[in-house]
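Appendix B. Raw example, untouched.
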Amino acid sequence: MGAVESTEGEREPLLAPRPPEEQGAQPVNSSRVYGRRWVVLTLFSVLGFLQGMVWNTWGPIQNSAKHAFGFSTTDIAVLVLWGPVGYIPWLLFMWLMDKKGLRVSLLLTAFLMVLGSVLRSVPLTDLQLRRWLIHGGQLLNGLAGPTLMSAGPLLSTTWFAPDQRATATAVASLVGYLGAACSFLIGPLAVPAPNDTQIVNTITHWDPGHIRDRIQLVLYTELGVIAVFFVAVLLYFPSRPPRPPSVAAASQRLSYRSSICRLLSNMRFLMIALAYSVPTGVVAGWSGVLDMILTPVRVSQVDAGWIGFWSILGGCVFGVAMARFADSIRGMLKLILVLMLAGASLAATWFTLTCLTRLTHLPSTKATLYTSCILVGIFINSSVPIFFELFIETVYPVPEGITCGVVTFLSNLFTGLLLFFLTFYFTELSWLNWCLTGSCLFSLLLILFFRESYDRLYLDVFVSV
């Protein structure tokens, strides 16, 4: 299995030594599942939800933000770009998670989110300074991403039994996407679009003050909720249970340095890492500016928000369902991913051709845009927890947090590259749709040639405690 390659000094065991009188009553490595695991999962997931919501605040209301704060199209792209930029120090966050555990990592993450939300909410009248504070707040929120996006599999392994791991991974990793989905809904409904005008003496009036006040209300609300859950994590969030839930959770893992070296030298891992990071990175950037993409096809800000909401929500619900299926029928992760990526490729092609209705003569209606876009979100977003489980099975005994930290960094790298090019090529956006289609086909090709293995599952099934 490879676990014997790590020495005792490379990594502390999950189980702390127990007193001799307790050891006589029960084996040291006996496993147990605690009911409090659902509280831990809930706290982690809610923070992921809030981080995703804050990240996607500005894309769904980009027309309103431009009018209220004087943002340009480049500003909107950069505000979304701060999420991937927050991944630059990802090695530091992975080291902290590996050495100090989940509690310390999550407390730092929640503190960064609170501080970022405070900066965004300062009600300055100087719009230029206000813009700088908003950008700074988005960057701090982006720095919370490495832990929340990559620690889900570590949490599920640490707290959940093998037949619940994929489900817990799905919940922890997909709820952040659900937060981004709710931004598509909350933003356009709470903040009026600038085309909601008042007619006074037959002259069209814009009311930037009212729009600014509504945006401020959203920012204050998000700050309040984040502060409440920061206090909750501060009061209760243990790094690990008293006893592990499985053999894999109790086993020693490779050291931080050995893990990075093994990941970067494992061609099978790099193969599926690209298969995951390219489509998920592209779809994250694409959905962050979905309103800009749909504006040329005459879709309103509110309708674009609903399309984005149902797209991500569908992916979250379907992802949890598929993870539960993977828990009940083990050893079929590759087959599930092939089916998901094939569906994503077809849906992305349909959406791209529908947006080019002048050339393809395909019907471009609200129904076709809704359907194709929602299918893209369902197939790509629901593949995330399946990919995570396959990563961990492939490279075990590399720690879960480090493994998923590497792949989520790559995903954010591709998101950043996409948004970086958007700051230069924003007059005609059909190229974004073609990037989405190409990324899905590229990932499908890699998965078809990937040879799967299940090292961690083998340990849990065939090695007794």
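End of appendix B.
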